[in-house]
């Protein structure tokens, strides 16, 4: 038996949980009837059991929503490098992660140059909303447009749009990645118009609004699309250098540093004299000492301190040869 004592807050929580579980009659009748029967302690246990049921249902729901979302795995708020995102943008992302904008059918537009992390921010926001039980669908814009174009060709476009309408948020990644044909621009505009003031869109783009004529072709369609998107929207701009370029530059610097250190290690550890290679090839020294005229040039491939190296030992007839080390 639980040691907690019944309070009115426990009764309110039971009623709320039963309503969430869609047990309307039970929500209205259970607490008053048990109180009238003097079973306050039973209500404490009922609350505990209902909390477990609600938690289990939420876990199963999040699992289903995650599978249906197509969100990239691993791109979450936990893995997002917050230092790379402008502070104002990061604060707004944290606010949006509560999901309140979905109830108002507001949009989120994320702008920035290629490689600044727009897709990670969009995916992280999507995962955060999933954890709160909201339905999210993620797709590269070009892929979703092709799907809608095929649906229109098969005369099932309304059904395809209704399927997307089941999601609280649709994320269109890289809307400016490829230029659209007239037909593709038309189905893209249709999607935006269908969700206007009804469901939310999150769009990432490397093109500013003045360049969206490359997407929709027609100036009138471009203006209409932008008007619908920004009417109720949060606009986030990530103004920084490309993360991928920075990563490549760091990798290149690290490689050059490693190669430089390896060359220094080989020069330091492999002596230019024959005796300098005895640590990893004693047999070669014995052969050269026994027969100095064995070969004009003997090439040895070995490993010095974990670094692959080639050591050339030159034998000059009756004299002990001197070696050259190169990497």
What are the defining features of this structure?
single chain; 327 residues; alpha/beta; 3-stranded antiparallel sheet; 8 strands; 53% helix
Residues in helix, %: 40-55%
Return Rg in Å: 34 Å
Low-confidence stretches: 270-281, 292-327
Order of helices and strands: HHHHHEHEHHEHEHHEHHEEE
Largest sheet at a glance? 5 strands, parallel
Average pLDDT over all residues: 82
Counted beta strands: 8
Strand order of the largest sheet: 2-3-4-1-5
Coarse shape? globular
Would you mind describing this structure in some detail?
This protein is α/β, with parallel strands linked by helices and 327 residues long. Helix content is 53%, strand content 17%. The chain has 13 helices and eight strands. Strands 2-3-4-1-5 form a five-stranded parallel beta sheet. A three-stranded antiparallel beta sheet has the order 6-7-8. Helix 1 runs antiparallel to helix 2, helix 1 packs parallel to helix 3 and helix 7 packs across helix 9. The termini are far apart. The C terminus is likely disordered.
């Amino acid at each position: 038996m639980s040691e907690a004592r019944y309070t009115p807050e426990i009764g309110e929580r039971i009623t709320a949980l039963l309503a969430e579980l869609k047990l309307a009659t039970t929500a209205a009748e259970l607490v008053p009837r048990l109180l009238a029967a003097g079973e306050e302690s039973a209500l404490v246990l009922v609350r505990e059991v209902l909390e477990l049921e609600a938690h289990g249902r939420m876990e199963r729901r999040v699992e289903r929503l995650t599978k249906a979302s197509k969100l990239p795995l691993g791109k979450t708020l936990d893995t997002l490098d917050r230092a790379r995102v402008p502070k104002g943008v990061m604060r707004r992302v944290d606010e949006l992660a509560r999901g309140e904008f979905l109830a108002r059918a507001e949009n989120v537009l994320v702008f920035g140059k290629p490689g600044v992390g727009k897709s990670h921010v969009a995916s992280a926001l999507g995962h955060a909303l999933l954890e709160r039980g909201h339905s999210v669908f993620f797709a590269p814009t070009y892929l979703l447009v092709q799907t809608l174009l095929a649906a229109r060709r098969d005369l099932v476009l309304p059904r395809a749009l209704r399927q997307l309408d089941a999601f609280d948020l649709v994320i269109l990644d890289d809307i400016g990645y490829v230029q659209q044909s007239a037909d593709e621009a038309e189905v893209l505009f249709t999607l935006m118009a269908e969700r206007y003031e009804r469901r939310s869109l999150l769009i990432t783009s490397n093109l500013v609004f003045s360049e969206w004529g490359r997407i929709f072709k027609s100036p009138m369609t471009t203006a209409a699309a932008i008007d619908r998107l920004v009417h109720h929207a949060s606009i986030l701009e990530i103004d920084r250098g490309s993360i991928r370029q920075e990563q490549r530059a760091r990798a290149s610097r690290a490689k050059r540093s490693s190669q430089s250190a390896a060359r220094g290690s080989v020069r330091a550890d492999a002596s230019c004299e024959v005796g300098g290679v005895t640590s990893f090839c004693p047999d070669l020294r014995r052969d050269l000492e026994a027969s100095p005229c064995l070969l004009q040039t003997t090439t040895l491939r070995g490993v010095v301190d974990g670094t692959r190296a080639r050591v050339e030992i030159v034998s000059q007839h009756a004299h002990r040869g001197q070696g050259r080390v190169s990497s």
